[in-house]
Amino acid sequence: MTRPNQSQKALRHVCISPSGLGLKYRLATKLVFSNVNRPDNYNFGVVGPPGVGLFHKIADDGEVLVSGRNVMKEYYKMPEETAGTFTEDGWLKTGDIGEIDANNFLKITDRKKDLIITAGGKNIAPSRIEGIMTTSKYINQVCVVGDKRKYLSAVVALDEENIRDYADSHQIVYKIFSDLVGHPDIKALIDSEVKKKNQELPSFETLKRVTLVPEFTHHLGKFTGKAGQIIGHNRKSFAGFPGPGCFYGGI
């Protein structure tokens, strides 16, 4: 038995196996682990199949559910919290959104609390879109917004080094980096990049509007530049976006 606390979030653990890099999936205080890649049964970008005596499935809303001998029984003397942590038939709610492929491998795609529900009722995992957009060398960070809206928008922080190189090679005159954020040629460049990346997404997940910023600063939310991803950010910080300086993606 255990008590809930703020550390109970999904953790991805990296472990080295004879075959290479493996990922293990567990929840900090609710279960030891549920899924793990094996030396003889693994894949990249996933957390592997469930362990022996463990089971997983995906709920109708996309949440990963787990069951088995490693799962906690209850929160100590906290029946309401326990009831909210399990489904009526006893599956543990992980709070993560995921997919299970044909080989029974689990892939975590987002946190349930970060899901965007559009005005049309589509459930969208923003981190997947953000990950695709940041494969552009000109884009450093992305925050997708669109909850209760008809379409998705994004706030985009530019990759300073590559944007400067582009500007220099195209004879774009500027004094400081922030001058490039509003430059028509840079907007056209990002417009083109977003258009290319949108081709990898279904129509309801494509970005329709983009706001460019030099970087994500503290007053906009809590961010890290690691791998071009935004971690621990609060999308409410961008509730007013797109704002001044936004432009249509031409889609």
**Helix segment count?**
5
Indicate the mean pLDDT: 79
Whole-number total of structural domains: 2
The CATH architecture of the largest domain can be named as: 2-Layer Sandwich
Beta strands, count: 13
Oligomeric state of shown chains: single chain
Strands side by side in the biggest sheet: 4-5-6-7
Rg computed from alpha carbons, rounded to a whole number of angstroms: 21 Å
Summarize the structure.
Helices cover 18% and strands 30% of the residues. The chain contains five helices and 13 strands. The strands form four sheets. The protein has a four-stranded antiparallel sheet with strand order 4-5-6-7. The chain has a four-stranded mixed sheet with strand order 10-11-12-13, covered by helices on one side.
Describe this protein's structure:
The chain has helices at residues 79-85, 126-133, 160-169, 177-181, 184-198; strands at residues 10-17, 20-27, 31-36, 54-58, 63-68, 92-100, 106-111, 116-117, 123-124, 139-145, 152-158, 207-213, 247-248. The protein is α+β, with helices and mostly antiparallel strands. It has two domains: 10-112, Roll (Luciferase, domain 3), CATH 2.30.38; 115-248, GMP Synthetase, Chain A, domain 3 (2-Layer Sandwich), CATH 3.30.300. The strands form four sheets. It has a four-stranded antiparallel sheet. It has a four-stranded mixed sheet with strand order 10-11-12-13, with helices on one face. Strand 4 (54-58) and strand 5 form a beta hairpin.
